Amino acid sequence: MSDDLEVLDPAPVEVVYRGERLEIRPLTLGAMREFSGLVKPLMAEFVGDRNPSWLVSDDAMLIEVLETHGEALFRAAAIATGRPVEFISGGESITDMVTLATAIVRVNRDFFWRAMVSLVPKVPLPEQAANQASGGGVTSSSSSSPTGIH
Questions:
Q1: Measured torsion, CA atoms of residues 25, 99, 76, 50, in degrees rounded to the nearest 10
Q2: In the chain, how many domains are there?
Q3: Is 61 domain-assigned?
Q4: Whole-model pTM?
Q5: What are the boundaries of the region Disordered (predicted)?
Q6: Is residue 70 in some structural domain?
């Protein structure tokens, strides 16, 4: 039963940031709109075809993210933690920022899953792509599923 409740209302996650214990909770509906507008451009970087230099290490990733989306990242973390932007941006440790961001994602995993799915380009199934390339339209399928799809 507790697993069912965890899905409906994830338990808060505690992290230490700048020497203070922060309790990260799911975003409220009111906060979600602004938060989403701040993080979607950043998330698009992960599914886009940008230079994958940040795949080398978490530090390289965060440095690049801070250079290109730093203000949005700080504002989003401030919304998620209920702390002022100045508190978040005043951090000195990349590791602490990664830990904080990971906790925010973990507690709000449903939001991030839906947002990531909406950013991934729609790729047609191989048979749809072949049909479109030959100029054909949508065809009906038999009652059996294509190989590998159940």
A1: -130
A2: 1
A3: yes
A4: 0.66
A5: 129-150
A6: yes
